[in-house]
Amino acid sequence: MKESVVKRSAQVSLSSAAKGTKVTPASVRPITHEEVALRAYQLFEQSDRRPGNEVENWLRAEAELTGRRSATTLH
After folding, report:
1. Cα–Cα distances in Å, from 6 out to 1, 23, 40, 44, 60?
2. Residue % of the chain over a pLDDT of 70
């Protein structure tokens, strides 16, 4: 049973790739506000808690997390 699911998944991926359709794993989900906030806070702590970089930390956190997610996306 498991083998047939894997085979079917591969067939779908191959046919989608042949059509130029972007295939993504079912486990990919949008980045949450909480994930971005946590990463931005980590960046704040790494900068010795210097104030004034809130927007930069937030944007960097989003970019890092988006990059991590897109790295798991199949093309």
Report:
1. 9, 15, 38, 43, 37
2. 55
